[in-house]
Design the sequence.
Protein backbone atom coordinates (compact mmCIF):
# COMPACT_ATOMS: atom_id res chain seq x y z
CA UNK A 1 0.00 0.00 0.00
CA UNK A 2 2.83 2.38 0.79
CA UNK A 3 3.87 4.66 -2.08
CA UNK A 4 7.48 5.12 -3.10
CA UNK A 5 8.47 7.61 -0.49
CA UNK A 6 11.68 9.31 -1.54
CA UNK A 7 13.65 11.61 0.73
CA UNK A 8 12.62 14.70 -1.18
CA UNK A 9 8.88 14.13 -1.25
CA UNK A 10 6.80 15.84 1.39
CA UNK A 11 3.43 14.41 2.38
CA UNK A 12 0.97 16.44 4.42
CA UNK A 13 -2.19 15.24 6.12
CA UNK A 14 -4.47 18.27 6.32
CA UNK A 15 -7.60 18.83 8.41
CA UNK A 16 -10.23 21.56 7.98
CA UNK A 17 -13.27 22.18 10.22
CA UNK A 18 -13.69 25.97 10.34
CA UNK A 19 -17.35 26.09 9.33
CA UNK A 20 -19.75 23.41 8.11
CA UNK A 21 -17.50 21.00 6.19
CA UNK A 22 -15.50 18.31 7.95
CA UNK A 23 -12.58 17.70 5.62
CA UNK A 24 -9.24 15.92 5.40
CA UNK A 25 -6.75 15.50 2.57
CA UNK A 26 -3.35 14.09 1.75
CA UNK A 27 -1.20 16.42 -0.35
CA UNK A 28 2.14 15.55 -1.96
CA UNK A 29 4.74 18.28 -2.41
CA UNK A 30 2.16 21.00 -2.00
CA UNK A 31 0.47 20.65 -5.35
CA UNK A 32 -0.49 17.02 -5.91
CA UNK A 33 -3.76 16.02 -4.25
CA UNK A 34 -3.73 12.33 -3.31
CA UNK A 35 -7.10 12.52 -1.56
CA UNK A 36 -9.65 15.18 -0.72
CA UNK A 37 -12.46 13.97 1.55
CA UNK A 38 -15.29 16.33 2.48
CA UNK A 39 -18.23 15.53 4.74
CA UNK A 40 -20.71 18.34 4.11
CA UNK A 41 -23.37 19.39 6.60
CA UNK A 42 -25.23 21.67 4.19
CA UNK A 43 -28.40 19.55 4.15
CA UNK A 44 -28.60 19.75 7.95
CA UNK A 45 -28.06 23.53 8.19
CA UNK A 46 -30.57 24.15 5.39
CA UNK A 47 -33.26 23.34 7.99
CA UNK A 48 -32.17 26.45 9.89
CA UNK A 49 -31.50 28.74 6.91
CA UNK A 50 -27.82 29.00 7.78
CA UNK A 51 -24.99 27.43 9.74
CA UNK A 52 -25.79 26.77 13.41
CA UNK A 53 -22.40 26.77 15.21
CA UNK A 54 -23.29 24.26 17.95
CA UNK A 55 -24.77 21.80 15.45
CA UNK A 56 -21.76 22.23 13.16
CA UNK A 57 -19.40 21.50 16.06
CA UNK A 58 -21.33 18.36 17.04
CA UNK A 59 -21.24 17.05 13.47
CA UNK A 60 -17.51 17.69 13.21
CA UNK A 61 -16.76 15.55 16.26
CA UNK A 62 -18.98 12.73 14.94
CA UNK A 63 -17.31 12.65 11.52
CA UNK A 64 -13.72 13.71 12.02
CA UNK A 65 -12.04 10.32 12.48
CA UNK A 66 -13.91 8.72 9.57
CA UNK A 67 -12.94 11.64 7.33
CA UNK A 68 -9.26 11.48 8.32
CA UNK A 69 -9.15 7.71 7.91
CA UNK A 70 -10.86 7.95 4.51
CA UNK A 71 -8.31 10.55 3.37
CA UNK A 72 -5.41 8.25 4.27
CA UNK A 73 -7.12 5.22 2.72
CA UNK A 74 -7.91 7.02 -0.55
CA UNK A 75 -4.32 8.25 -0.76
CA UNK A 76 -3.18 4.67 -0.18
CA UNK A 77 -0.94 5.77 2.65
CA UNK A 78 -0.44 5.34 6.38
CA UNK A 79 -0.19 8.02 9.01
CA UNK A 80 3.47 7.00 9.46
CA UNK A 81 4.16 8.07 5.84
CA UNK A 82 3.17 11.67 6.54
CA UNK A 83 5.80 14.34 7.08
CA UNK A 84 3.53 16.77 8.89
CA UNK A 85 -0.05 17.43 9.97
CA UNK A 86 -1.63 20.71 8.82
CA UNK A 87 -4.76 22.16 10.35
CA UNK A 88 -6.92 25.26 9.96
CA UNK A 89 -6.79 27.22 13.23
CA UNK A 90 -8.62 30.37 12.11
CA UNK A 91 -10.56 32.31 11.14
CA UNK A 92 -13.92 30.58 11.53
CA UNK A 93 -16.42 29.35 14.11
CA UNK A 94 -14.48 28.79 17.32
CA UNK A 95 -16.31 25.61 18.39
CA UNK A 96 -15.93 24.14 14.91
CA UNK A 97 -12.25 25.09 14.61
CA UNK A 98 -11.48 23.57 18.03
CA UNK A 99 -12.52 20.09 16.90
CA UNK A 100 -10.05 20.07 14.02
CA UNK A 101 -7.32 21.71 16.07
CA UNK A 102 -7.62 19.29 19.03
CA UNK A 103 -7.81 16.30 16.67
CA UNK A 104 -4.81 17.41 14.59
CA UNK A 105 -2.72 18.15 17.65
CA UNK A 106 -3.46 14.74 19.19
CA UNK A 107 -2.71 12.92 15.94
CA UNK A 108 0.53 14.83 15.38
CA UNK A 109 1.58 14.34 19.00
CA UNK A 110 0.87 10.61 19.13
CA UNK A 111 2.39 9.96 15.69
CA UNK A 112 5.46 12.10 16.44
CA UNK A 113 4.85 14.42 13.48
CA UNK A 114 5.34 18.17 13.26
CA UNK A 115 2.19 20.30 13.39
CA UNK A 116 1.51 23.24 11.09
CA UNK A 117 -1.27 25.76 11.78
CA UNK A 118 -2.90 27.13 8.65
CA UNK A 119 -4.84 30.34 8.07
CA UNK A 120 -8.11 29.45 6.36
CA UNK A 121 -7.89 32.30 3.83
CA UNK A 122 -4.31 31.36 2.99
CA UNK A 123 -5.80 27.95 2.24
CA UNK A 124 -8.34 29.45 -0.16
CA UNK A 125 -5.62 31.41 -1.97
CA UNK A 126 -3.51 28.23 -2.17
CA UNK A 127 -6.38 26.36 -3.84
CA UNK A 128 -5.18 28.05 -7.03
CA UNK A 129 -1.82 26.24 -6.85
CA UNK A 130 -3.47 22.83 -7.09
CA UNK A 131 -4.50 22.96 -10.73
CA UNK A 132 -2.10 25.62 -12.00
CA UNK A 133 1.46 24.31 -11.73
CA UNK A 134 2.70 27.47 -13.45
CA UNK A 135 1.12 29.86 -10.94
CA UNK A 136 3.59 31.31 -8.46
CA UNK A 137 3.60 34.49 -6.39
CA UNK A 138 3.50 37.39 -6.81
CA UNK A 139 -0.07 37.80 -8.06
CA UNK A 140 -3.31 39.50 -7.14
CA UNK A 141 -6.04 37.41 -5.49
CA UNK A 142 -9.70 38.11 -4.79
CA UNK A 143 -11.05 35.92 -1.98
CA UNK A 144 -14.85 35.84 -1.85
CA UNK A 145 -16.91 33.52 0.34
CA UNK A 146 -19.76 33.45 2.82
CA UNK A 147 -17.49 34.84 5.52
CA UNK A 148 -14.78 36.74 3.66
CA UNK A 149 -14.24 39.36 0.95
CA UNK A 150 -10.58 40.29 0.55
CA UNK A 151 -8.51 41.69 -2.27
CA UNK A 152 -4.88 40.80 -1.54
CA UNK A 153 -1.45 40.90 -3.09
CA UNK A 154 0.12 37.47 -2.69
CA UNK A 155 3.72 38.64 -2.38
CA UNK A 156 5.15 35.22 -1.68
CA UNK A 157 3.97 31.91 -0.23
CA UNK A 158 2.36 32.84 3.08
CA UNK A 159 3.04 36.55 2.61
CA UNK A 160 0.14 38.90 1.91
CA UNK A 161 -0.73 42.54 1.62
CA UNK A 162 -4.42 43.35 1.96
CA UNK A 163 -5.55 46.00 -0.53
CA UNK A 164 -9.26 45.89 0.23
CA UNK A 165 -11.85 44.15 2.34
CA UNK A 166 -15.57 44.38 2.96
CA UNK A 167 -16.79 47.06 5.33
CA UNK A 168 -19.95 45.10 6.17
CA UNK A 169 -21.38 41.91 4.65
CA UNK A 170 -19.20 39.36 2.88
CA UNK A 171 -20.14 38.85 -0.77
CA UNK A 172 -21.40 35.33 -0.11
CA UNK A 173 -23.40 36.57 2.87
CA UNK A 174 -25.22 39.00 0.55
CA UNK A 175 -26.02 36.08 -1.77
CA UNK A 176 -27.42 34.11 1.19
CA UNK A 177 -29.55 36.99 2.45
CA UNK A 178 -30.99 37.85 -0.97
CA UNK A 179 -31.70 34.17 -1.69
CA UNK A 180 -33.55 33.89 1.61
CA UNK A 181 -35.58 37.05 0.86
CA UNK A 182 -36.83 35.68 -2.48
CA UNK A 183 -37.43 32.22 -1.06
CA UNK A 184 -34.62 30.43 -2.88
CA UNK A 185 -33.22 29.04 0.38
CA UNK A 186 -29.75 28.16 1.65
CA UNK A 187 -26.99 28.16 0.48
CA UNK A 188 -27.75 31.28 -1.56
CA UNK A 189 -24.75 31.37 -3.92
CA UNK A 190 -25.50 28.40 -6.15
CA UNK A 191 -29.27 29.05 -6.04
CA UNK A 192 -28.93 32.69 -7.19
CA UNK A 193 -26.40 31.63 -9.82
CA UNK A 194 -28.86 29.10 -11.23
CA UNK A 195 -31.90 31.41 -11.12
CA UNK A 196 -29.89 34.24 -12.73
CA UNK A 197 -29.18 32.14 -15.82
CA UNK A 198 -32.84 32.61 -16.85
CA UNK A 199 -32.90 36.33 -16.00
CA UNK A 200 -31.92 39.68 -17.47
CA UNK A 201 -29.01 41.30 -15.56
CA UNK A 202 -30.12 44.75 -16.75
CA UNK A 203 -33.77 44.33 -15.69
CA UNK A 204 -33.37 46.16 -12.37
CA UNK A 205 -30.82 48.91 -11.71
CA UNK A 206 -29.16 48.10 -8.39
CA UNK A 207 -26.41 50.37 -6.99
CA UNK A 208 -22.69 49.61 -7.45
CA UNK A 209 -21.45 50.69 -4.05
CA UNK A 210 -18.44 52.97 -3.79
CA UNK A 211 -16.92 53.36 -0.34
CA UNK A 212 -15.23 56.41 1.13
CA UNK A 213 -11.51 56.22 1.77
CA UNK A 214 -9.94 53.05 0.38
CA UNK A 215 -11.10 52.62 -3.24
CA UNK A 216 -10.46 48.87 -3.03
CA UNK A 217 -12.77 48.24 -0.07
CA UNK A 218 -16.16 46.66 -0.64
CA UNK A 219 -19.63 47.21 0.76
CA UNK A 220 -22.61 44.97 0.08
CA UNK A 221 -25.11 46.02 2.75
CA UNK A 222 -26.42 48.93 0.64
CA UNK A 223 -26.99 46.61 -2.30
CA UNK A 224 -28.67 44.08 -0.02
CA UNK A 225 -31.00 46.83 1.31
CA UNK A 226 -31.78 47.98 -2.24
CA UNK A 227 -32.80 44.43 -3.16
CA UNK A 228 -34.94 44.07 -0.02
CA UNK A 229 -36.57 47.48 -0.70
CA UNK A 230 -37.31 46.41 -4.25
CA UNK A 231 -39.00 43.26 -2.94
CA UNK A 232 -41.00 45.15 -0.30
CA UNK A 233 -42.07 47.77 -2.84
CA UNK A 234 -43.21 45.09 -5.29
CA UNK A 235 -45.10 43.29 -2.52
CA UNK A 236 -46.82 46.55 -1.48
CA UNK A 237 -47.88 47.32 -5.04
CA UNK A 238 -49.10 43.77 -5.47
CA UNK A 239 -46.60 43.21 -8.27
CA UNK A 240 -45.15 39.77 -8.88
CA UNK A 241 -41.39 39.51 -8.29
CA UNK A 242 -39.48 38.12 -11.22
CA UNK A 243 -36.99 36.01 -9.27
CA UNK A 244 -34.79 35.32 -12.31
CA UNK A 245 -34.46 38.99 -13.26
CA UNK A 246 -33.91 40.01 -9.66
CA UNK A 247 -31.26 37.32 -9.14
CA UNK A 248 -29.49 38.23 -12.38
CA UNK A 249 -29.57 41.98 -11.63
CA UNK A 250 -28.32 41.50 -8.06
CA UNK A 251 -25.60 39.11 -9.14
CA UNK A 252 -24.44 41.45 -11.85
CA UNK A 253 -24.20 44.32 -9.33
CA UNK A 254 -21.98 42.17 -7.08
CA UNK A 255 -19.85 40.86 -9.94
CA UNK A 256 -19.34 44.31 -11.49
CA UNK A 257 -17.85 45.65 -8.27
CA UNK A 258 -15.70 42.58 -7.63
CA UNK A 259 -14.32 42.61 -11.18
CA UNK A 260 -13.71 46.36 -11.46
CA UNK A 261 -11.94 46.57 -8.07
CA UNK A 262 -9.72 43.61 -8.90
CA UNK A 263 -8.80 44.64 -12.43
CA UNK A 264 -8.25 48.28 -11.41
CA UNK A 265 -5.90 47.13 -8.66
CA UNK A 266 -4.02 44.84 -11.07
CA UNK A 267 -3.50 47.76 -13.43
CA UNK A 268 -2.42 50.15 -10.67
CA UNK A 269 0.05 47.70 -9.14
CA UNK A 270 1.16 46.25 -12.47
CA UNK A 271 0.06 42.64 -11.94
CA UNK A 272 -0.28 40.39 -14.96
CA UNK A 273 -1.83 37.55 -12.95
CA UNK A 274 -5.21 37.55 -11.18
CA UNK A 275 -6.62 34.63 -9.18
CA UNK A 276 -9.95 34.20 -7.42
CA UNK A 277 -10.73 31.93 -4.46
CA UNK A 278 -13.45 31.05 -1.95
CA UNK A 279 -16.97 29.71 -2.36
CA UNK A 280 -18.17 32.65 -4.49
CA UNK A 281 -15.27 32.00 -6.89
CA UNK A 282 -17.36 29.15 -8.27
CA UNK A 283 -20.07 31.64 -9.31
CA UNK A 284 -20.41 31.40 -13.09
CA UNK A 285 -21.06 35.13 -13.65
CA UNK A 286 -17.96 36.09 -11.64
CA UNK A 287 -15.80 33.62 -13.56
CA UNK A 288 -17.16 34.89 -16.88
CA UNK A 289 -16.99 38.58 -15.97
CA UNK A 290 -13.48 38.38 -14.51
CA UNK A 291 -12.34 36.25 -17.46
CA UNK A 292 -13.55 38.79 -20.02
CA UNK A 293 -12.12 41.77 -18.13
CA UNK A 294 -8.75 40.03 -17.73
CA UNK A 295 -8.64 39.07 -21.39
CA UNK A 296 -9.32 42.69 -22.37
CA UNK A 297 -6.57 43.91 -20.06
CA UNK A 298 -4.07 41.25 -21.11
CA UNK A 299 -4.03 39.68 -17.65
CA UNK A 300 -3.80 35.91 -17.02
CA UNK A 301 -6.80 34.69 -15.01
CA UNK A 302 -6.69 31.76 -12.61
CA UNK A 303 -9.51 30.08 -10.75
CA UNK A 304 -9.92 26.75 -8.95
CA UNK A 305 -12.41 24.02 -9.81
CA UNK A 306 -15.61 24.36 -7.74
CA UNK A 307 -14.55 21.51 -5.42
CA UNK A 308 -11.47 23.57 -4.41
CA UNK A 309 -13.46 26.82 -4.11
CA UNK A 310 -15.70 25.75 -1.25
CA UNK A 311 -14.10 24.68 2.04
CA UNK A 312 -11.83 21.66 1.65
CA UNK A 313 -8.67 20.28 3.23
CA UNK A 314 -6.64 19.93 0.01
CA UNK A 315 -6.14 23.69 -0.08
CA UNK A 316 -5.15 23.58 3.62
CA UNK A 317 -2.58 20.89 2.78
CA UNK A 318 -1.18 23.04 -0.01
CA UNK A 319 -0.86 26.07 2.26
CA UNK A 320 0.58 23.86 5.04
CA UNK A 321 3.24 22.57 2.65
CA UNK A 322 4.62 26.04 1.96
CA UNK A 323 4.45 26.92 5.67
CA UNK A 324 6.20 23.64 6.47
CA UNK A 325 9.10 24.08 4.04
CA UNK A 326 9.49 27.64 5.34
CA UNK A 327 10.01 26.14 8.81
CA UNK A 328 6.67 27.00 10.43
CA UNK A 329 5.84 24.68 13.36
CA UNK A 330 2.96 24.99 15.82
CA UNK A 331 3.21 24.06 19.51
CA UNK A 332 1.00 21.61 21.41
CA UNK A 333 -0.75 24.67 22.86
CA UNK A 334 -2.03 25.73 19.43
CA UNK A 335 -5.45 27.30 19.95
CA UNK A 336 -8.31 28.11 17.60
CA UNK A 337 -8.31 31.82 16.71
CA UNK A 338 -11.78 32.67 15.36
CA UNK A 339 -10.85 36.18 14.15
CA UNK A 340 -7.32 35.41 12.96
CA UNK A 341 -6.06 38.14 10.62
CA UNK A 342 -4.47 37.29 7.29
CA UNK A 343 -0.68 37.30 7.54
CA UNK A 344 -0.82 36.95 11.35
CA UNK A 345 1.08 34.10 12.99
CA UNK B 1 -3.57 -2.67 32.32
CA UNK B 2 -2.65 0.91 31.58
CA UNK B 3 -5.35 3.56 31.11
CA UNK B 4 -4.89 7.17 30.01
CA UNK B 5 -7.61 9.41 31.46
CA UNK B 6 -8.73 12.73 29.98
CA UNK B 7 -11.10 15.14 31.74
CA UNK B 8 -12.18 18.50 30.27
CA UNK B 9 -15.91 18.73 30.96
CA UNK B 10 -15.69 21.87 33.10
CA UNK B 11 -13.11 24.53 33.95
CA UNK B 12 -10.85 21.72 35.18
CA UNK B 13 -8.35 20.28 32.71
CA UNK B 14 -6.89 16.97 33.87
CA UNK B 15 -4.90 14.07 32.47
CA UNK B 16 -3.83 10.93 34.31
CA UNK B 17 -2.20 7.55 33.81
CA UNK B 18 -3.43 4.63 35.91
CA UNK B 19 -1.54 1.33 35.93
CA UNK B 20 -3.84 -1.28 37.48
CA UNK B 21 -4.16 -0.18 41.14
CA UNK B 22 -1.56 2.58 40.86
CA UNK B 23 -2.01 6.21 39.86
CA UNK B 24 1.29 6.77 38.03
CA UNK B 25 0.71 10.39 37.10
CA UNK B 26 -1.97 13.02 37.28
CA UNK B 27 -1.86 16.64 36.19
CA UNK B 28 -4.87 18.80 37.07
CA UNK B 29 -5.33 22.48 36.42
CA UNK B 30 -8.33 24.60 37.40
CA UNK B 31 -7.47 27.84 35.71
CA UNK B 32 -8.84 30.24 33.14
CA UNK B 33 -6.70 29.10 30.18
CA UNK B 34 -8.61 27.13 27.57
CA UNK B 35 -8.38 23.34 27.41
CA UNK B 36 -7.12 23.75 23.88
CA UNK B 37 -4.01 25.42 25.29
CA UNK B 38 -3.54 23.21 28.36
CA UNK B 39 -4.61 19.63 27.74
CA UNK B 40 -1.98 18.40 25.29
CA UNK B 41 0.97 20.26 26.88
CA UNK B 42 -0.10 18.68 30.21
CA UNK B 43 -0.15 15.22 28.64
CA UNK B 44 3.27 15.92 27.10
CA UNK B 45 4.54 16.90 30.55
CA UNK B 46 3.50 13.65 32.23
CA UNK B 47 4.67 11.56 29.27
CA UNK B 48 8.16 13.04 29.72
CA UNK B 49 8.03 12.96 33.52
CA UNK B 50 7.16 9.26 33.84
CA UNK B 51 8.91 8.22 30.60
CA UNK B 52 5.63 6.94 29.26
CA UNK B 53 5.55 5.19 25.91
CA UNK B 54 2.06 5.98 24.63
CA UNK B 55 2.10 2.75 22.59
CA UNK B 56 1.89 0.82 25.89
CA UNK B 57 -1.51 2.14 26.97
CA UNK B 58 -4.46 -0.22 26.64
CA UNK B 59 -7.23 2.36 26.32
CA UNK B 60 -8.02 6.05 26.53
CA UNK B 61 -10.76 6.92 29.02
CA UNK B 62 -12.63 10.13 28.24
CA UNK B 63 -14.91 12.04 30.56
CA UNK B 64 -17.80 11.68 28.14
CA UNK B 65 -20.20 14.32 29.41
CA UNK B 66 -22.31 16.14 30.37
CA UNK B 67 -20.59 19.49 30.81
CA UNK B 68 -19.33 22.42 28.77
CA UNK B 69 -20.10 21.51 25.15
CA UNK B 70 -16.83 22.95 23.90
CA UNK B 71 -14.82 21.48 26.77
CA UNK B 72 -16.27 18.02 26.12
CA UNK B 73 -15.42 18.27 22.43
CA UNK B 74 -11.81 19.28 23.10
CA UNK B 75 -11.43 16.21 25.33
CA UNK B 76 -13.22 13.99 22.84
CA UNK B 77 -11.22 15.22 19.83
CA UNK B 78 -7.99 14.83 21.79
CA UNK B 79 -8.93 11.25 22.72
CA UNK B 80 -10.10 10.50 19.18
CA UNK B 81 -6.88 11.85 17.65
CA UNK B 82 -4.75 9.85 20.10
CA UNK B 83 -6.88 6.75 19.51
CA UNK B 84 -6.60 7.11 15.74
CA UNK B 85 -2.84 7.55 15.76
CA UNK B 86 -2.13 4.91 18.43
CA UNK B 87 -4.85 2.50 17.21
CA UNK B 88 -6.23 2.23 20.75
CA UNK B 89 -9.86 1.93 21.88
CA UNK B 90 -11.68 4.56 23.87
CA UNK B 91 -13.81 4.22 26.99
CA UNK B 92 -16.46 6.87 27.49
CA UNK B 93 -16.96 7.42 31.22
CA UNK B 94 -20.08 9.35 32.29
CA UNK B 95 -18.70 12.55 33.82
CA UNK B 96 -20.98 12.55 36.88
CA UNK B 97 -20.13 8.90 37.58
CA UNK B 98 -16.43 9.72 37.53
CA UNK B 99 -17.00 12.59 39.96
CA UNK B 100 -18.90 10.29 42.33
CA UNK B 101 -16.05 7.78 42.05
CA UNK B 102 -13.85 10.39 43.80
CA UNK B 103 -15.79 9.42 46.95
CA UNK B 104 -15.58 5.63 46.63
CA UNK B 105 -16.76 3.92 49.81
CA UNK B 106 -18.28 7.07 51.27
CA UNK B 107 -20.55 6.59 54.29
CA UNK B 108 -22.77 9.31 52.88
CA UNK B 109 -24.69 9.13 49.61
CA UNK B 110 -22.76 11.04 46.94
CA UNK B 111 -24.36 13.78 44.88
CA UNK B 112 -22.17 15.57 42.32
CA UNK B 113 -23.68 18.78 40.96
CA UNK B 114 -22.33 20.60 37.92
CA UNK B 115 -23.73 24.05 37.21
CA UNK B 116 -25.83 23.83 34.05
CA UNK B 117 -27.20 27.41 34.41
CA UNK B 118 -30.81 28.61 34.79
CA UNK B 119 -31.17 26.78 38.14
CA UNK B 120 -30.31 23.49 36.44
CA UNK B 121 -27.59 21.06 37.43
CA UNK B 122 -26.06 18.03 35.81
CA UNK B 123 -26.27 15.52 38.61
CA UNK B 124 -26.74 11.94 39.72
CA UNK B 125 -27.13 10.11 43.03
CA UNK B 126 -24.76 7.37 44.23
CA UNK B 127 -24.77 4.97 47.18
CA UNK B 128 -21.05 4.32 47.62
CA UNK B 129 -21.25 2.64 51.03
CA UNK B 130 -20.20 -0.68 49.50
CA UNK B 131 -17.85 0.87 46.95
CA UNK B 132 -19.65 2.48 44.07
CA UNK B 133 -23.27 2.13 43.03
CA UNK B 134 -25.53 4.31 40.89
CA UNK B 135 -28.93 5.17 42.44
CA UNK B 136 -29.94 7.85 39.95
CA UNK B 137 -28.23 8.01 36.57
CA UNK B 138 -26.70 11.27 35.47
CA UNK B 139 -29.20 13.78 34.14
CA UNK B 140 -30.00 17.49 33.94
CA UNK B 141 -32.54 18.71 36.52
CA UNK B 142 -33.67 21.65 38.62
CA UNK B 143 -31.58 22.11 41.77
CA UNK B 144 -34.60 22.39 44.07
CA UNK B 145 -36.21 19.27 42.63
CA UNK B 146 -32.95 17.45 43.32
CA UNK B 147 -32.90 18.62 46.94
CA UNK B 148 -36.52 17.51 47.31
CA UNK B 149 -35.65 14.08 45.94
CA UNK B 150 -32.76 13.77 48.41
CA UNK B 151 -35.02 14.84 51.28
CA UNK B 152 -37.52 12.14 50.35
CA UNK B 153 -34.77 9.49 50.20
CA UNK B 154 -33.84 10.41 53.77
CA UNK B 155 -30.14 9.49 53.45
CA UNK B 156 -27.15 11.52 54.56
CA UNK B 157 -25.55 13.10 51.50
CA UNK B 158 -22.26 14.68 50.43
CA UNK B 159 -22.21 17.21 47.60
CA UNK B 160 -19.37 18.05 45.25
CA UNK B 161 -18.83 19.82 41.97
CA UNK B 162 -18.75 23.35 40.59
CA UNK B 163 -22.50 23.61 41.25
CA UNK B 164 -21.80 23.76 45.00
CA UNK B 165 -20.57 27.40 45.12
CA UNK B 166 -23.43 28.39 42.81
CA UNK B 167 -26.30 26.66 44.64
CA UNK B 168 -24.92 26.28 48.21
CA UNK B 169 -27.39 28.79 49.65
CA UNK B 170 -30.42 27.18 48.00
CA UNK B 171 -29.33 23.73 49.19
CA UNK B 172 -28.78 24.88 52.77
CA UNK B 173 -32.19 26.55 52.86
CA UNK B 174 -34.15 23.54 51.64
CA UNK B 175 -32.29 20.40 52.70
CA UNK B 176 -33.65 18.37 55.64
CA UNK B 177 -31.17 15.44 55.71
CA UNK B 178 -27.63 15.58 57.17
CA UNK B 179 -25.23 16.85 54.50
CA UNK B 180 -21.61 17.71 53.77
CA UNK B 181 -19.75 19.58 51.08
CA UNK B 182 -16.60 17.79 49.87
CA UNK B 183 -13.26 19.56 50.42
CA UNK B 184 -10.94 20.91 47.71
CA UNK B 185 -9.00 17.71 47.00
CA UNK B 186 -12.21 15.72 46.33
CA UNK B 187 -14.72 18.21 44.99
CA UNK B 188 -13.91 18.59 41.29
CA UNK B 189 -13.48 16.44 38.20
CA UNK B 190 -10.24 14.47 38.12
CA UNK B 191 -8.75 12.44 35.29
CA UNK B 192 -7.53 9.88 37.86
CA UNK B 193 -11.15 8.99 38.64
CA UNK B 194 -11.96 8.87 34.92
CA UNK B 195 -9.02 6.53 34.31
CA UNK B 196 -9.75 4.31 37.35
CA UNK B 197 -13.45 3.91 36.51
CA UNK B 198 -12.54 3.67 32.82
CA UNK B 199 -10.28 0.74 33.72
CA UNK B 200 -13.27 -1.15 35.19
CA UNK B 201 -15.30 -0.50 32.03
CA UNK B 202 -12.35 -1.60 29.91
CA UNK B 203 -12.20 -4.91 31.78
CA UNK B 204 -15.95 -5.32 31.22
CA UNK B 205 -15.36 -4.83 27.50
CA UNK B 206 -17.20 -1.52 27.39
CA UNK B 207 -14.89 0.05 24.82
CA UNK B 208 -15.67 1.93 21.63
CA UNK B 209 -13.53 2.83 18.66
CA UNK B 210 -12.00 6.30 18.50
CA UNK B 211 -14.13 7.00 15.41
CA UNK B 212 -17.35 6.23 17.28
CA UNK B 213 -16.83 8.50 20.26
CA UNK B 214 -18.73 11.73 20.64
CA UNK B 215 -19.75 13.47 23.84
CA UNK B 216 -22.95 12.73 25.72
CA UNK B 217 -24.20 16.33 26.02
CA UNK B 218 -27.53 15.46 27.74
CA UNK B 219 -28.89 18.58 26.03
CA UNK B 220 -29.77 19.36 22.46
CA UNK B 221 -28.42 22.51 20.80
CA UNK B 222 -30.59 25.54 21.49
CA UNK B 223 -31.45 26.01 17.79
CA UNK B 224 -32.69 22.42 17.62
CA UNK B 225 -34.87 22.81 20.74
CA UNK B 226 -36.36 26.03 19.37
CA UNK B 227 -37.03 24.43 16.02
CA UNK B 228 -38.77 21.47 17.66
CA UNK B 229 -40.82 23.85 19.82
CA UNK B 230 -41.96 25.70 16.70
CA UNK B 231 -43.12 22.50 15.07
CA UNK B 232 -45.00 21.08 18.02
Sequence:
Amino acid sequence: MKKNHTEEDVYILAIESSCDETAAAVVKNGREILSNVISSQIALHTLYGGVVPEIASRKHIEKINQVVEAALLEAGMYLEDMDAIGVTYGPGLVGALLVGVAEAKAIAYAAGKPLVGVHHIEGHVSANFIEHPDLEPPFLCLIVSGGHTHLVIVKDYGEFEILGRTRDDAAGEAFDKVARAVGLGYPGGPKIDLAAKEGNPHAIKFPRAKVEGNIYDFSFSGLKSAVLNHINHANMMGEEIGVADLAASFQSAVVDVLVSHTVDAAKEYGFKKIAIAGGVASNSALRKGMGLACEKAGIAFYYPSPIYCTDNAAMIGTAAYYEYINGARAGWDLNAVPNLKLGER
Amino acid sequence: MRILGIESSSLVASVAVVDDEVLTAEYTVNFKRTHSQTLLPMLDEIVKMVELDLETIDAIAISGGPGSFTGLRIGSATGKGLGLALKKPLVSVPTVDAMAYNLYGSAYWVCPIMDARRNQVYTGIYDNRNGFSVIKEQCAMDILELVEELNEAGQKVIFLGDGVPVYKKQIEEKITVPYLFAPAHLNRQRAAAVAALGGLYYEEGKTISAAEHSPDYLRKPQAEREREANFS
